[in-house]
Amino acid sequence: MGNCHTVGPNEALVVSGGCCGSDEKSYTVGGWAWAWWLITDIQKITLEIMTLQPKCEDVETAEGVAITVTGVAQVKVMTDKELLGYACEQFLGKTVAEIKSVILQTLEGHLRSILGTLTVEQIYQDRDQFAKLVREVAAPDVGRMGIEILSFTIKDVYDKVEYLSSLGKSQTAAVQRDADIGVAEAERDAGIREAECKKEMMDVKFQADTKMADSKRELEMQKAAFNQEKAEAQLAYELQAAKEQQKIRLEEIEIEVVQRKKQISIEEKEILRTDKELIATVRRPAEAEAYKMEQLAEARKIKKVLTAQAEAEKIKRIGEAEAGSIEAVGKAEAEKMRLKAEAYQQYGEAAKTALVLEALPKIAEKVSAPLGRTSEIVILSGDSGRVTGEMNRLLAELPVTVNALTGVDLTKIPLLQKMKNPQA
After folding, report:
1. Which PANTHER family does the annotation name (predicted)?
2. What angle do the packed helices 96-115 and 127-143 form, to 10 degrees?
3. Where are the domains of the chain?
4. What is the structure's pLDDT at 113?
């Protein structure tokens, strides 16, 4: 199990450790990271700007003058992964004050070393160049710590022996002298310039008078030319007006011709429209009705053909089905007869006898069928023994009749022999 840790854009989250003794580290800036309990470590390092005020007191310059210099530096931890790793190695677990102290000492050391190579005038008069030199020299060292110098400026430069004050006094005197000389030269130049301006003013006035006279003469000439041009313009206007009137009349005639052509075109289109309307209202409906009747007749014809084809197909299918049924029944009857024939052939005379005995009831039924429609039979005979004799005669003639029809001698069947001779 573990936790999800988050940091803002002004902090970096460092997750170290892991399973199997892993030494892998992950850096997250302004985001989140997952950390396992017990086996990973979570630490944070600030990315905010840190303001430092390095101060070097009584540092001797290249001329041996002891001066004190104070500055202001803005630094921060860089977010590049590799450089952030350097910063974490150097400062992780330290407070902001401890980080500031380390960087401040580094900057003050470089500031001291640079002060020893410059003169007081170079430091005092060109502070920007001096600050740039400090940044360039100190940047590689603090960069190896993962720190970036955003800005470095010189705040104040002073000394305890009034060297800078004396330098300022001599400079002030020189400036005052140059100012007096400048005032005198300015007054002289002003007088010369004033005379030159007066001369230029007279020249300009003469030129202006000359130009004014020339302008008047040119104005009179322009008026004369204008009057002449005006007369010519009036004549040209009248001539152009006549030409325009003629053009307008020609254009009116052309317009009338175009209108007449359009009127003819409209009449022709009206004739075509009337013709199309007659075609659409009279001819087309008649053609449509004729086509409709033709299509209906064709549809009825196709319907009759399809109906006849369907009926023929139906009859054909019924015939094929009946033929198949008859063929199956015939095959079944043939198979039955074949089996009977085989049975009769196998059992010989006994089979024939059984067949005859099986058929006798059916023969008797057919023979006695007319009698079945007789409601009453009356035998007229004065002798009762005669009736019995007739019955015995019929029974005696029955085996002979069967033998004649089937070839089977019923008298040879043991059962019938017993019926004939009960005493036996």
Report:
1. FLOTILLIN-1-RELATED, FLOTILLIN-RELATED
2. 130
3. 1-48, 49-161
4. 85
Query: Residue 416: which of 407, 405, 400, 404 has the closest Cα?
Result: 400
Beta bridge partners of 52: 73
Q: Which residues, 6 or more positions from 347, have their beta carbon under 8 angstroms from its beta carbon?
A: 354
**Do 88 and 147 form a contact (C-beta atoms < 8 A)?**
no
Q: How confident is the model at residue 277 (pLDDT cuts 50, 70, 90)?
A: confident
List b or e across 191-216, with b for residues whose CB sees 16 or more CB atoms inside 10 angstroms: eeeeeeeeeeeeeeeeeeeeeeeeee
In the numeric block, the tokens 């007191």 are attached to 57
> Does the pLDDT at position 137 exceed 80?
yes
> d(Cα 34, Cα 310) in Å, to the nearest integer?
82
Whole-number Å distance between alpha carbons of 399 and 407: 10
CATH fourth-level superfamily of 49-161: Band 7 domain (3.30.479.30)
* 420/424 Cα distance (integer angstroms): 9
Assign 275 a pLDDT band (cuts: 50, 70, 90): confident
Closest CA to 304 of 312, 315, 293: 312
The model's pTM is: 0.38
Helix 81-91 / helix 96-115 crossing angle, nearest 10 deg: 100
Q: How far from chain centre, in Å, is Cα 177?
A: 81
pLDDT given for residue 380 in this prediction: 59
Picking from 104, 157, 151, 170, the residue whose alpha carbon sits closest to that of residue 126 is: 157
Amino acid identity for residue 121 in this structure: E
pLDDT average, residue stretch 93-105: 87
Confidence of residue 377 (pLDDT cuts 50, 70, 90): low
Closest to 52 in 3D by CA, of 70, 79, 27: 70
- Segment 319-343 mean pLDDT: 76
Pairing of strands 50-52, 66-77: antiparallel
